[in-house]
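This part of the workshop introduces the protein records we will be handling. A learned vocabulary of local backbone shapes supplies the integers on the structure line. Getting from the letters to the tokens is the skill we practise here. As an example, a complete record with its sequence and its structure tokens follows.
=====
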Amino acid sequence: MKHVRVLVLREDLPQASLTLAETESFHPDPRAPEEQRLAPLVDCRYQGEYQKARSRLDKIAQVIPVPEPDLSEIRVVNLEELAEVNAWLGSAWEFCLEHQEGFRELEENARLLEEQQAVLANFAELNVDLGALRAEKRFLDLHIGVVPRENVSRLEGALGLAGHMLLKYMERDGNAHVVIVGPSEDGASELKSLLSSAGFTAIPLPHGLDDSPETIQADQRKERDRIDRERADLQEEVETCASEMHDKLVRASTVLALAEPYVTLDPAIRSAGYLASIEGWVPVEALPDLERRLETSLHNPFSLESRKPREDERPLVPTVPVRNRWLQPFAMLVKQYGIPRYGEIDPTLLFTITFVLMFGTMFGDVGHGAVLGLLAWLFRKKLGRFYIFGVLAGISSVFFGVLFGSVFGYKDLLPAVWMSPLYNPILMLQLATGWGVLFLTLACVLTIYNRLAIRAFMAAVFGAHGIVNLIFYLGLVWGAVSLAMTGVFGVIPAGLVIAALTALATYNWAHMQAPIGEKILVVLIETLETVLGYLSNTLSFLRVAAFSINHVALMIAVLTLAGMLGTVGSILMIVFGNIFVMVLEAVIVTIQVMRLQYFEGFSRYFSADGREFAPLRLRRRPRAA
């Protein structure tokens, strides 16, 4: 990546912006230039017209589909043309606003109608004038509500003793809808207590519904038909208008797409008199093409200066993302953790390889892997780029299924090329431990390289997961292997471990400002943390073996249960058991692999605080409504 400064005449700024956008390789740098004579652009009329026009077009898109811009001809859009388009969009938006309000009013009427229908459903079987029921009654006490069905008989008997009558007119969802009528007396508190003990819940009588439910429902159907007709008429009018305005909308969309690069570059443009400067970041391989295009498109002389990033600029330099099609889904998962800083090794390729291998090891089954890969392929349109993730994971599962001799849990359909995890658990645990050692060693190597790349030499040697840490870890592994094979830790590995821990303790002691007692305590704790950290991180990879064994064990359980059932039950158990194991294991294994990648890998060598490369480009599609 190189820092580029383009010096042009101010009159060439729009054309230079278009050319930079066409190359899709120029990442604007909004920092103030070192030359104090250069200042931000003062005349912002172009930017103002663009912002107004863009806002209006986005609002229009909420009512009328905006067509794609026609970028067959790349040309400069001047202020007069932009202002003309902005004025036309203003009048078009007034039309759209009127129809948008019409749609909004119809939606509100439809919502109110649905609410009335929901309320009226409680009185659908009560064929009386609701307005008469709601009217104030001098000598009559009236209650309408619901009560649990099992309490109706008991409540009816108690109300009879109180001089009231209960009428059940509908049952729904375990509740009885009832009307309770009686003389209006002073015993209202006793009646209220009786209704409460029976679980009675009052239903408020709706306002504005003053007729029988049957008549009101007929009126509501007419209102619904009216709303649907008006909505259809309004939609037809909008579609007709959209067809008439199509050409002008294409022109407006095109003009804004061509004007956008100049507006987007505004923070990175500085000027003095007739001279203007545009600064940004460009990949080294794209620099010759950028210069060639500027020479072709600009009529006046220009100057293009480039230089390597300074050390103090490294945090500001953008990182170009991985463009490989097969690595795209994995690059998106890496991005969820963060963006690699400029100069760091992009972990996407390593992440892809280790993820696929660990997934296949833990989910090794020919049948399950084939189903996973096939489903990912069949639903590739819905999954987008993530279908590659499923296909590669499925292929890895098939590969390890062949090694393990497992097809939908059956061991006799395909002889194991290598071995079965369940019958060789010690070997699987040893391999998982070896995998962890290799993974952590590689993570430390990447950490050291990344620190050396930014000239952080002391951190590369003595920092966490640096050279001294790596020496300690390799010495510890060497001694552990020797102890397991010969019963002796070994003098050389012991010397490496002691020397590395002594160097770390000495370095921490020298760089700590604290009382003697506190320094001793902190150094001891940090040294112990280094030892325990590497041990626990290595043992964390035993889950690779654990889940590969667990997968086999679950399938044995499914097949054992199937053997205990009849023909139909056995088939159902095998089918649904496999589905259950596939879904459960696929989700759990993915989570476990991601955990190992993020916490045992990325947290060691990946700073994740970089800037993503976002080059200036022409917008090929209008914004979604």
Remarks:
- The chain has a mean pLDDT of 87.
- The CA atoms of residues 558 and 580 lie 10 Å apart.
- The chain is about 60% helix and 10% strand.
- The two ends are 36 Å apart (CA to CA).
